[in-house]
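Hello, quick one for you while I still have it in my head. I'm working through a protein record and want to make sense of it properly. Would you mind checking whether the tokens look sensible for this chain? I owe you a coffee for this, so here goes:
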Amino acid sequence: MTDRPGTRGNGLIDEVSKSIIEQLQQDGRRSYAAIGKAVGLSEAAVRQRVQRLTEAGVMQIVAVTDPLQLGFGRQAMVGIHVDGAVQPVADALAQVEEIIYVVMTAGGYDVLCEVVSTSDEELLDLVARRMRGIPGVRSTETFMYLKLAKQTYSWGVR
């Protein structure tokens, strides 16, 4: 197997691709030409690398929104205890539209989910009926978000 530019055989990315990612973490709307100047590549080469990185699932370029300003009055993290295999439960949770983040964990919970909803009633239905109705979900604990103190996506690359 040969390596494509921007990746190594072990699945890690090279330093130039890391620099491109850092540029996009600072400003996801930064032009390919501006990124190229910063990392020493042509606009076309940057475009190709960004396409490869997104197709490989290394990164996504998305608009980060404020859920409150979009009509989502409630955000919460839900910790879930699972009976049996965790993966099928995580897969089922990932299919629920209001669940925006699903991660299998080690520790107090088997799965953590971040959820957004328009109201308390919608959140109650989501947790009490839809999430707890998934086979294998033993129990849930909901942590309501009161105020967002920090949200960043610019942690860099290693």
About this structure: The longest strand covers residues 74-82. Residues 1-12 have pLDDT under 50 and may be disordered. The two ends are 24 Å apart (CA to CA).
